[in-house]
């Protein structure tokens, strides 16, 4: 299985065009939060229409997995906390997003939404508990914020650590976690695009200018993960 992972595209349409062009080379395209850009001059409701069309185009050639980030929130949900309601709509299998788990081959993928308060955080905890039941051989999570205790949280000045995610990883020990959110992590001193918590591999492709988004290609058959930035790349073995 080949998994093409990127995050923090922030409504940069050239990056979406690149993903559409590259999708046929992957079995799965994973976009790990901040698809939209909350500070763009383009209204969010317009961004959503455009982004849904891109997701449909991607879904024509690969399985598409998406989770929300902080820039994707479009209003309060039923409990009053901010959610990305547009990523919670029924897609009839077109792509899989917030709150869902899907089994593909030997892998279970669990898409965890960005949580804005205790109610949504508890829902994520319940989502993971449910997905853990009769889990298959391999389990992969998508969660926009990287976990505490990893170098993926470092932006060169401060550390933005998600302790809740780290605790869930310690509890369930998924095989991989795909994240984003900290744009500078792959390039700063003390940061990286990959790390490990116990037996769990964690990834953050980062965000950079240019026509091609930083991205990771995970090849489970070859047992490799290849990261591509604008000015370089790196490869690691998954074992």
Please, could you describe this protein's structure?
The chain is of the alpha/beta class. It contains 4 helices and 14 strands. The protein has helices at 13-22, 44-59, 118-131, 163-172; strands at residues 2-6, 28-32, 63-67, 75-76, 82-83, 101-104, 107-111, 138-142, 176-179, 194-197, 200-204, 215-219, 224-229, 232-237. The strands form 3 sheets. A 6-stranded mixed sheet has the order 3-2-1-12-13-14, with helices on one face. It has a 6-stranded mixed sheet with strand order 6-7-8-9-11-10. The longest helix has 16 residues, at 44-59. It is globular, with a radius of gyration of 16 Å. The two termini are 16 Å apart. The model has no long low-confidence stretch (mean pLDDT 95).
Task: Put the structure in a nutshell.
By secondary structure, the protein is α/β, with parallel strands linked by helices. Helix content is 21%, strand content 26%. The chain has one domain (2-237): Purple Acid Phosphatase, chain A, domain 2 (4-Layer Sandwich).
């Amino acid at each position: 299985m080949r998994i093409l992972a990127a995050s923090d595209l922030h409504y940069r349409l050239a990056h979406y065009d690149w993903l559409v062009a590259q999708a046929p080379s992957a079995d799965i395209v994973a976009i790990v939060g901040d698809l939209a850009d909350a500070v763009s001059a383009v209204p969010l409701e317009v961004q959503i229409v455009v982004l849904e069309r891109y997701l449909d185009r991607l879904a024509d050639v690969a399985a598409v997995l998406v989770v929300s980030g902080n820039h994707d929130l479009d209003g309060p949900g039923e409990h009053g906390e901010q959610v990305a309601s547009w990523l919670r709509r029924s897609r009839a299998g077109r792509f899989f997003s917030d709150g869902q788990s899907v089994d593909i081959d030997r892998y279970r993928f669990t898409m965890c939404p960005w949580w804005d308060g205790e109610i949504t955080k508890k829902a994520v905890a319940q989502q993971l508990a449910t997905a853990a039941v009769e889990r298959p051989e391999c389990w992969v999570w998508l969660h926009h914020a990287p976990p505490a205790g990893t170098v993926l949280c470092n932006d060169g000045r401060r550390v933005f650590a998600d302790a809740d995610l780290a605790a869930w990883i310690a509890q369930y020990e998924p095989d991989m976690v795909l994240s984003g959110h900290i744009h500078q992590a792959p390039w700063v001193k003390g940061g990286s695009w990959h790390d490990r918590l116990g037996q769990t591999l964690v990834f953050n492709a980062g965000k950079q200018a240019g026509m091609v988004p930083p991205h990771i290609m995970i090849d489970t058959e070859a047992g490799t993960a290849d990261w591509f930035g604008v000015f370089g790349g790196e490869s690691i073995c998954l074992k």
